[in-house]
Every structure is written in structure tokens, then in C-alpha cells.
Amino acid sequence: MLIATALLPILLGSLTMVFRFESARKRQMYLMGSVILTSLMVFACILFLPEDYTQVFIRLTDKMTCTLHLDGMGKLFAGLVALLWPFATLYAFEYMHHEGGENVFFTWYTMSYGITLGVAMAGDLVSLYLFYEFLTLCTLPLVMHGMSHQSVAAGLKYLYYSLTGAALAFIGVMLILHFGDSTAFAFGGVLNNIADNQVIWVRAGYVLAFLGFGVKAAVFPFHGWLPTASVAPTPVTALLHAVAVVKAGVFAVMRITFYSFGPQLLNGTFAQYIPLALALITIVYGSAMAVKEEHLKRRLAYSTVSNLSYILLGILLMTPEGLTAGMTHMVFHALIKILLFTAVGAVMIRTGKHYVQDVRSLGKRMPMTVVCLILGSLALTGIPPFIGFTSKWMLFESAWQMGGTFGYLGVAALLISALLTAIYLLVPSFHACFAKPNHGDEIIPSDPGMQMRVPFMVWACAIVVLTFASQPLIRFIMTCAGLQ
Q1: What pLDDT does 128 receive?
Q2: Considering only Cβ atoms within 10 Å of each terminal Cβ, which end of the chain, N or C, has fewer?
Q3: Peptide bond into 235 cis (omega under 30)
């Protein structure tokens, strides 16, 4: 069942370039049917498969097998992907009509769904690593879509960074293979019989693995590919920055920290402090660069750089409370950021303009788009009672509870970033509602069509619902993190 679920969108997506669709409508029906069927299978796996259900799909050696398994953390990530992908695909139908090359685009777009599910459902470190690297190959054509000079340059930068990360992460995989009881994920880690003279090398290997998987999580100094990749079409950047690639990065860091190396081996050592220092630097640096950046999508990209390290901060506290906060922010940030990116994409499609100053007085001409932009901005800034406040407060409490130098530095980084977030998101929102239009601006007819508006409304409603009813989700996350 798990293998079929991951392979289905890969197979159906690859057939998109084979079939000769008589019309765009028939292609859309085929693609939407493929994505919805996959999501239904994901939810069936989440709801009905037993906790101990594991499928082996490759047996390399007695110790090294590739398996799929859905534990609580995997269910959370797979469910998030399955909820967002169908609506992102619907949004892409209308958006890509303006971009062209739809057959090639939707082939890789749909295949990426299956690869991302493979990351979520990986039952061991080798499987996670394989799907993680396949995700690079599958999303590279999406970044380079259109094959302009900028797109090719962005794609090559993404590839070079990812290959560097792959090499570093491979070291961590090999250490687990050599020293671990097995490569299968087990809460608390699998390194139970390490000699004292080997510990330092294992901890150094964790730091390298963190940096390797941290490339996709855009941790400083490996963040540069993410703002550059914003040249890709908005449906790509929305998923890159909200769900698929970057969340696969933080998800992999969760796995290696709590399920492979284990926090007991790492806590209070350089293997914790070096990654923590990089995460704190990234939080402040990403927010500061977002304030400076005038291009709308690149501003949101730097915001993603910062917020991914919010999640890493929670993970690297290496406490159940920190893990709970990090996982909560992973879900909430995904919803908020996909709403923001798609709203900005609508502005770009309808106006042909790409910069912050171009949103002046846009609320009168594109009211629904601007309302979604404002809602996402309020939520990501952390204004109570929105979901961004909930997850950021949980991170704040976890860092304060940790105490010590890094705990209090974490609190300071969160406060500085919150102030900078208010500047780079709320100021443009204010201008969209109250500023006078730029001289020479033409009247924009309206918001985009229904295929783009429906995802807006669904994601906006999800944010509002979770604002007032997030406790069941948080209780489930607490169970995954070992708090209940």
C-alpha cells in the first residue's frame, strides 16, 4: 500500500508527456484525478494502516534495507503534503497557462509529489537519503522551467548546493550504517554501543549530516540557492518554499536528530551548539535580508530562510517541547507561506509587476488577493491569536525553558526576527490598503480566476480554523514528540 501510494504519482506524472491530450481541460482532469487519488490513498494509509506496518522495497544487504513506514512524524508530513498538493495543482492550472510548457511542467510537478511522499514515508535513513536526492533531480527541471538565462543559472546553483549537501549527508548515513544497531528509525536513536573513543567522530559526523540535509533547509551559509530559485514559476516556489523541498530538509534533520543519532548523544556538546549557532544566525540574517529585498518573491524567499531555522531551533533544543514547537511551526508555516506565495503570484500575473512598491493601492482592485496577503502577513508576523503566534510562542517557551547561553540567544533571535517580520510583511500590506497608487498605474480588472481563487480561500479558511481550533493537532504532535 505504501509503495503503491508513492509510486502512483510518479507513474501517472511520467505518462503526462506520453499521452496526447485533445485539450488543456482533459489534461487538467487527468492530472487532478491523479493527484486527488494519490491524496486519498495517503489518507487511507494514515487512517487504516497499523503502527507497525512496514514495507521493504529494496534489500541491499542484511543490514541495509530500504523500507517505507508511517509513524506519527511521517503521518504529519505526509498528511500536510496530501492536503496542500491538490489545491496547489489547481492553482497551477491557471498560472501555467500564462507560462507555457505545461506538459513538461506538470510531468515533473506530479512526479515530485510521489518523491516527497517517499521522504515522508521513509522507514530508514538509507530510504530517506535516496528519496531526498531523487527530490533534487525531480525538482531541478521545475526550477529551470522556461530555460531562460536566469532560470538555468538558478537551476545550476540549486544543483551545486544540493550535490554539496548530498556529499555531507552521505557521511552521516555511512556512520549510522557502521556504528548503528540498524538504519531503521527509532525514537531516541540507534547508536547504543559506541566506544568512548568513537563518540567524537560520530558527533562530528552528525554536524556534517546536519549541514548536508540543512542545505535544503537553507541554513546559513548554504541558503543562497533559495532566493535565487524564486525565478521559477510561482506554483514551484510555493511548493519549494512551503512544502516539498525545504520541509523535506527540516524533516530530515528531525529524523537524524531524534531517530538516528539520538539527542542523548548530542545534547550539551559541540554537535548541538554548532548547528544551534548556525540556526540562530540564519533566523536573524534571513529576516534582515527580507527587509532589504524589494522583489516580492525574493522577499518571501528570505522570509522562508528565516522561518525554516525557527523549526531547526526547535529541533536543536533537543527536548520534547522543542520538537513539538518545531513540528507545529513546520505545519503552520507551510499553510501561511503557500498562501503568501500564491497571493503574490496572483499579483504578478494580473499586474505584470514584481516589486514591493507595486502593491500600492492594490486592495481596491484585487480585494480578495490582498485580504489573503494581509491574513498571511498577520499570521506569519505572529500577531495573536493567529497560528504564527501559537507556534512562535511555543518556540519562545522551549528556548526559555532550556536556559543557558543558547536558550537566551534563541529568545533574543526570535524577538528580533518578529520585529523585522512585522516590517517586511505588514508595511507592504498597509500600502496595499491605504497608500495612493503609483503614478501611471493602470486599473487592474479584478482578482484572478476561480482556479487560483479557490486555493486562496481554502488555505485562508484553514488558517482561520486552526487559529481557534489547533489543540487537537498540537496534541497529536505532542504524542509524536513523546510528550504524551
Answers
A1: 92
A2: C
A3: no
- Between CA 103 and CA 19 the distance in angstroms is 10
pLDDT along the chain (484 residues), means of 10: 88 83 83 92 90 82 82 90 90 79 85 92 91 89 82 88 92 88 86 82 92 91 86 78 82 92 90 94 94 88 91 93 92 91 83 77 80 90 90 92 88 92 87 70 67 87 92 88 69
- What's the Rg (C-alpha) of the chain? 21
In the structure grid, which three cell numbers stand for residue 20, read together? 496526447
DSSP H helices in 122-198: 125-143, 149-179
Residue 437 per-residue DSSP state: P
Give the amino acid at 186: A
Q: What are phi and psi for residue 214, nearest 5 degrees?
A: -70, -15
DSSP structure class, residue 436: P
The H-or-E segment that residue 68 falls in is strand 65-69
Q: Is 98 exposed, middle or buried (0-12, 13-18, 19+ CB in 10 A)?
A: exposed
The whole-angstrom separation of Cα 202 and Cα 169 is 13
- Give CA–CA dist 352/345, Å, rounded: 10
pLDDT value, residue 13: 86
The helix-helix angle for 270-292 and 296-316 (nearest 10°) equals 160
Q: Of 285, 290, 445, nearest to 356 (Cα)?
A: 290
Among candidates 52, 85, 84, which has minimal Cα distance to 68? 52
**DSSP class of 122:** B
Q: Which single residue is written with the C-alpha cell 510548457?
A: 101
Question: What ranges do the domains of the chain cover?
Answer: 279-484
Kindly report the backbone phi and psi dihedral angles of residue 396, in degrees, each rounded to the nearest multiple of 5, phi listed first.
-60, -50
Residue 156 amino acid letter: L
In sequence order, the β-bridge partners of residue 184 are 124
* DSSP 8-class letter at 443: P
Q: What is the distance between the alpha carbons of residues 239 and 319, in angstroms, rounded to a whole number?
A: 29
Grid-cell match 503521518, residue found: 75
DSSP, residue by residue, 316-373: HTTSHHHHHHHHHHHHHHHHHHHHHHHHHHHHHHHH---BGGGGTTGGGTSHHHHHHH
Q: Tell me the C-alpha to C-alpha distance, in Å, between residue 203 and each of 159, 270, 317, 357.
A: 27, 8, 16, 47
Please give the Cα distance from 246 to 243 (Å, whole number). Answer: 7
